[in-house]
Amino acid sequence: MIGAIVSFSAMAVAGRALATDLDTFEMMTYRSIIGFTIVVGFATLRGKLGDITTRDLPRHAVRNLAHFAGQNLWFLSLTLIPLAQVFALEFTSPLWVILLAPFLLGERFTLKKLAVVLCGFIGILIVAQPGTTPISLGTVTAATAAICFALTGIFTKQLTRRHTVTCILFHLTAMQLMFGLICAGYDGDIALPTTIGLPWIIVIGLGGLTAHFCITTAMTLAPATVVLPIDFARLPVIAIIGMVLYDETLTWPVFLGAALIFGANYVNVVTESRRTWSRRT
Fold it and tell me: How far is residue 180's CA from residue 174's CA, in Å, rounded to a whole number?
């Protein structure tokens, strides 16, 4: 999880560094090139190319469109609002999963889950502070990115029932490379990375893969009730980075709202873990 925190934080810094030279579509294009190369190379070396199939292409496409939109909105948010606010709003993604799962996964929506969502929503209001300051474009894009990431998670769960991780990652990088080329090149002008920007592109490309690899590995080594609190350490880490590198102020509403969002997520994870354990025993 320390690896995941470092990777996500590095991606945020790299996204800001590249914002003056590349738009978000171009960032995603170069990130996908790196990711696609790594996935294909890894699958070839491990003899996993046979895992890649063309089944469920529409579901892959929807999943990757959601992720592509969410990632672009996330990168855009990094340039519009403080880093801590972006990360706090990103943490609402599991709450959106709770709301969307009954419709897309057929899961039950209970009163406890409703209470969890309401607690998380109060946290969002504290972070966004509607009424005291106008809702900014960055707040909207960060919150929308969280919804897109929730959809990504739901469709990923559906795909894992029929496909291997290699197959899912192949279609992820291949389709997002295609989406990136279309969106970045529709005007016939895709900016090439500069000598200074190239290392930041590599950070984004490697950071995305290593972050999710670290989280997945952590989930196999420890219960979600242990992993989730560590993941929320990203917020104070990125807040300190924002203060040191960009002179961003540390505001109490962001941390209070994030604490409520974390509490809601943690209660949900504990409840689901206990339910899973009781079914097994």
Answer: 10
Q: Give Cα 24 distance to the centre of its chain.
A: 15
d(CA 121, CA 116): 9
C-alpha 44/C-alpha 263 separation (Å) is 42
Could you give phi then psi for residue 130, rounded to 5 degrees? -65, 140
Measured CA angle at 137 (ends 121, 78), to 5 deg = 90
What are the pLDDT digits (tens) for 130-164?
656 667 899 999 999 999 998 988 888 888 888 88
**What is the C-alpha separation between 4 and 230, in angstroms, rounded?**
10
Which of these, 20, 81, 34, 85, lies nearest to 239 by C-alpha position? 85
Q: Which two tokens stand for residue 153?
A: 């998670």
- DSSP one-letter code for 51: G
DSSP 195: T
From CA 168, how far away is CA 2, in angstroms rounded? 25
In angstroms, the Cα distances linking 268 to 102, 121, 159, 197, 276 are: 15, 14, 23, 41, 12
Residue 91 burial (CB count, 10 A): 24
Q: Is 130 helix (H, G, I), strand (E, B) or coil?
A: strand
For tokens 């592109």, the residue is: 201
Scan for tokens 């699958």, then name that residue.
Answer: 43
Question: Phi and psi (nearest 5°) for 98?
Answer: -60, -40
Q: What is the pLDDT of residues 21-76, one digit of tens each?
A: 999 999 999 999 999 999 999 999 999 999 999 989 999 999 999 999 999 999 99
- The total of other beta-carbon atoms located within 10 Å of residue 220's CB is 7
The Cα 82–Cα 247 span in angstroms is 10
